[in-house]
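Practice record 12: protein with NDP.
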Amino acid sequence: APAPTPEPADSSAQPQAVLVTGGNRGIGLAIARAFAEDGHDVVVTHRSGEPPEGLRGVRCEVTDSESVDAAFTEAEQLLGRPVQVLVANAGITRDGLLMRMSDEDFEAVVDTNLAGAFRCARRAVKGMIRARAGRIILVSSVVGLLGSAGQTNYAASKAGLVGLARSITRELGGRGITANVVAPGFVRTEMTDELSEDLQKTYLSQIPAGRFATPEEVARVVRFLAGPEAAYISGAVIPVDGGLGMGH
Ligand code: NDP
C-alpha cells in the first residue's frame, strides 16, 4: 500500500487563504469570522453593498461563471496566493408546494445553491491541483437528506451537493484535496427569530437538542474541516443539527 503522507504537524500554525461565498451576512459571515479569529487570511464574496466590517470582500454572483472567475482572481490578488480553502455557502430558498412551483423558482434555487457551488469549486481546484492541497466545504442543509414539504427545489439542490462533494473526492482525493458537506439544521438567525412562537415551538419539539444552533456552532465545524485535524475526512456529510436529521 502507498505510504501515508500526512500533513505536516505544524500546519495548524500556517494561515490558510480562505474564500467564503455569501460571507457578508448570516452563517457565511460567522464562518468568515471564525477563520479570521484563528489568524487565517479570509476574503468573503458579497453581491451588493459593502463587505462586512473588518473583512475583505469581492463582488460575486454565483449564478454567473464570469463573475465567479473574476471574484476568484480578485480574491487571489488580495490573498497574495491561490485560494486554499473554499467555503461554498451562498444559498437561497424559494419555497412552494410542488404542484404550484414554477420552473423559475426551481431553476433559480438549483442554479444558486448547486450550480453556484459547482462553479466555485471548478474555479477553486485550478490552484488546489497545482498546490496538491485544498479544502472544499459545501454548506448544505439537513433537509437535503431528510426532505422538506414545500422545499422540493431547495432540498434537491442541497442533496445535489453531496454528489458534488463525493465526486470531487473521487476525482481529486489523490491530489491532497478534500471535499465535504456540512448540513446544518435550524440555525438561529434573523429569519428564525421572526418565526411565530408557536412555529418555533413546533420546530423545537422535533430537535433532540431542544434548541436551534448558533451560526458560530456551524462555523466551528466548517473551520475544523479546513484544519489539519480533518486531513483524512473527505466525502463526508457532517450534520450540525442537534440530532434533527439522525439516521438519514
Ligand atoms: P442568508 O440569507 O442570511 O445569506 C445568504 C448569503 O448567500 C448572502 O450572503 C447572499 O448574498 C448570498 N447569496 C445568495 N444568492 C447569491 C448569489 N446568486 N450569488 C452570490 N451570493 C448569493 O442565509 P443563511 O446565512 O441563513 O444561510 C447560509 C447557507 O446556509 C445557505 O446555503 C443556506 O441554505 C444554508 N442553511 C441555512 C440554515 C438556516 O437555518 N439559516 C439551515 C441550513 C442551511 P446577499 O447578501 O447579496 O443576498
